[in-house]
Amino acid sequence: MFSNEFYRQFHRDVHSQNGEDGIIEELLRRLNISNGWVCEFGAWDGIHLSNTFHLVEQGFRAVYIEGHADRYKDLLKTCARTEGIIPVQAYVDHCEGSTNTLDKLLGQTPIPTDFDVLSIDIDSYDYQVWESLKLYRPKMVIIEINSSVPPNQKDYIHEPGRCDGSGFRSTYELGLRKGYTFVLHTGNMFFIRNDLATEINFEFGHPFNNFRTNWMSEDAVKKFNRS
Q1: CB 183 within 8 A of CB 202
Q2: CB neighbourhood size of 70 (10 A)
Q3: Residues 177, 180, 184: CA angle, nearest 5 degrees
Q4: Edge-first strand listing for the sheet containing 117-120
Q5: All residues at 6 or more sequence positions from 124 whose CB lies less than 8 Å from its CB, including other chains
Q6: What is the DSSP-derived secondary structure letter of residue 162?
Q7: pLDDT tens digits for 90-137?
Q8: 190 forms bridges with which residues in the sheet?
Q9: Residue 218 half-sphere exposure, CB side, CA atoms within 13 Å?
Q10: Cα dist from 219 to 76, 78, 152, 209, 225, whole Å
Q11: Using 50, 70 and 90 to split pLDDT, how confident is the model at 224?
């Protein structure tokens, strides 16, 4: 349990926070993808703790979405010295009918519907934003969760005043419903679209094998192991 061998072998940070750069690099290598498109939000300046800027440095094109006015100015500075970034100033919304759903924001750009990497990190409605995405089917989805929540806890979905962020199990089940295979957890959860999952040649095993307990208290880990 909690061995997470794929993480142990391939984690590496260039700009990312918890080894995501190395994980992404290895997964794309196995998928034989060396260029393409990525989308990340909230992007800040496009570089700070980014899961995808290292790919931009290698020639990928990007849609970076940032709603905060000052951070968006920082993003524009990055765009001025970096080719291939399409900046969008918006807070991504998950509510039906909003003009700021991810589908509608991406629809204003040339990013293809089956683009390569989607990174969701907004510290709140991450689950709901992915759930609301209907028109785009990225090959890889990286989504932040509340990693302090025990991975077997049911129905932990972000709701102000009740749940802070969404938990592993709820997000795992969302990925299954959307046609994705869970690969591993770094602090973010990694999913590969089902039609590509066999190409990464990975023995998935039990999902908990690929969960990192770094954000759980020692007592919580012990309680989970007894459950």
Answers
A1: yes
A2: 9
A3: 120
A4: 85-89, 61-66, 37-41, 117-120, 140-144, 188-193, 180-185
A5: 158, 160, 165
A6: T
A7: 999 999 999 999 999 999 999 999 999 999 998 899 999 999 999 999
A8: 142, 184
A9: 0
A10: 45, 43, 15, 19, 10
A11: confident
Query: Amino acid letter at 205?
Result: G
pTM given for the model: 0.96
The single-letter DSSP state of residue 93 is: B
User: For residue 72, how far is the Cα from the chain centroid?
Assistant: 20
Structure tokens at 91: 């807070």
Identify the residue whose tokens are 């989308």.
39
pLDDT band of 43, cuts 50, 70, 90: confident
The percent of residues in the chain predicted with pLDDT above 70, rounded, is 99
Give the chain's length.
227
Alpha-carbon distance values, 54 to 18, 62, 85, 176, 210 (Å)? 14, 11, 12, 28, 24
- Residue 168 is encoded by which pair of tokens? 């592993």
Check: CB of residue 140 under 8 Å from CB of residue 130: no
Which residue is listed with tokens 């040339």?
110
- First-to-last CA distance in the chain? 13
